């Protein structure tokens, strides 16, 4: 009877913990999930930047068209659009970061 009590005490006092193998498996699963998620985030970021660049081209083309309707000048530049307040400095800076060029009356990336 004493032996059975000692066994139960020993089992009762033994603390539950994770084994090294269980921890390794958890870390492996987490790393697999990271490998799946990170490339997808990168692709989404690139897609968002491309969408933003296309929208910026559209905005600048619209402003160039408006400038040409108001003025007879067909050689539009960023400085003219800025001075006549068709675009802001922030918009011009962002357009130049995207590599957007104004060629006469056409805007391209």
TrEMBL record:
Secretion signal span: none
GO terms under cellular component: cell surface; plasma membrane; type II protein secretion system complex
Keyword rRNA-binding: no
Protein keywords: Cell membrane, Competence, Membrane, Methylation, Transmembrane, Transmembrane helix
Any GO BP annotation: protein secretion by the type II secretion system
Alphabetical list of Pfam families matching this protein: N_methyl
Subcellular location: Cell membrane; Cell surface
UniProt topology in membrane: Single-pass membrane protein
Coiled coil: none
InterPro entries per the UniProt record, alphabetical: Bac_GSPG_pilin, ComGC, N_methyl_site, Pilin-like
Similarity annotation: Belongs to the ComGC family.
NCBIfam families documented for this protein: pilin_ComGC
PANTHER family recorded: GENERAL SECRETION PATHWAY PROTEIN G, TYPE II SECRETION SYSTEM PROTEIN H
Protein name as it appears in the record: Competence protein ComGC
